[in-house]
């Protein structure tokens, strides 16, 4: 299994190289040279397997010879052992045709744990074999920081430093980061906002000597391994509802287009998915694209579903490459035009091909609140992202009324208690393993917005220098 870049200029390479590189040197994203497909018998053999076993089978079709036999399975078992339900991603029926695929039973209560819990272990394994160490730095306004910290904590070959804007993250999200007491984890609160933190991280990466000294790395949302690790839950849920003999549809609340692209990948492997519904919020670039081939970037506006407050969905480039017949030069030219003009010129035929599979709806905050209330009245507590997914599935269902719709429930309601309380009047409780989150001791350093000070803090933390 080899990987090519969506911009066609980078030489094909292995899973291991793609895992470590993240982005291709031509600026493109990596995709498998060809999609592995499963026979009917192979799909059927996966039905009912324990989740880690199913995940290792599916992911193993993408990892080539990076992991010796048995190693990937052991990593999957470890990665998902910390999830609080043995099903790992249980399906909960919402109405006669809708099911919530609960992806929030991991350590940070959101679906990013599925990929990051495995990625931390993959990195550790590969780096140990190569005798290398890396320092991961990142900026967060909440969500990704905690998932990355949980993924990297206690890993032997990694140190991680996460910058967050002082006083500007929600208490739940900050505490999920700052109460992790592991020697390789360091939290820094910066005087400033999220953009300040992001600029500091960029400046560290642009400081070539520092970058080399620390062997800086990022757990980017564009890393192919993250997408690969998100394919198995689409497979498991579709099989549970009758695939491969029966078609299913998925509705996915989307920001960077990563999670819904994983569903697209499952379809490319032969899983019978009739429709993919994109749930967006007021940041509606994907809904405008599907509706009218209008891919014009606009300023980001805050919403009740902050993890989808994104205007340029970086993983969309992967779909674009496929829609353009895997033509790297065309993809590169289209991305260049998008960067220069703010509007992506997608050919009409490619757009039509996308609309045959995708539906999309931009869910307003008012609709999100109404949907959370409606679900609450029917006995289901949904977070605002999940509610955007179910609302989109009501607005734009698949044509065949008998096709089951599986909605990706991407976060636990307790992760967004204010929005849930505003909608339902009831404040969601933290799950038992986190019930004492507000009593745990927080550890973080407050630093001014100053590159030299922050670089010194990173240098002092990284164990490579000890
Ligand atoms: C990250 C996130 C999303 C968006 O996922 P993408 O892969 O960026 O589309 C949706 N919901 C929640 C809760 C998230 O944390």
TrEMBL record:
Cofactor list: pyridoxal 5'-phosphate
Source taxon at top rank: Bacteria
GO molecular function: threonine synthase activity
Coiled coil (UniProt feature): none
Catalytic activity, as annotated: O-phospho-L-homoserine + H2O = L-threonine + phosphate
Pathway the protein takes part in: Amino-acid biosynthesis; L-threonine biosynthesis; L-threonine from L-aspartate: step 5/5
Keyword entries, A-Z: Amino-acid biosynthesis, Lyase, Pyridoxal phosphate, Threonine biosynthesis
InterPro entries, alphabetized: Ser/Thr_deHydtase_PyrdxlP-BS, Thr_synth_N, Thr_synth_N_sf, Thr_synthase-like, Threonine_Synthase, TrpB-like_PALP, TrpB-like_PALP_sf
Its EC number(s): 4.2.3.1
UniProt keyword Nucleus present: no
Tryptophan synthase beta chain-like PALP domain segment(s): 101-329
Statement: the UniProt record of this protein carries the keyword Transmembrane: no
Limits of the Threonine synthase N-terminal domain: 2-80
Stated family: Belongs to the threonine synthase family.
Name under which the protein is recorded: Threonine synthase
Source organism: Muricoccus vinaceus
Gene this protein is translated from: thrC
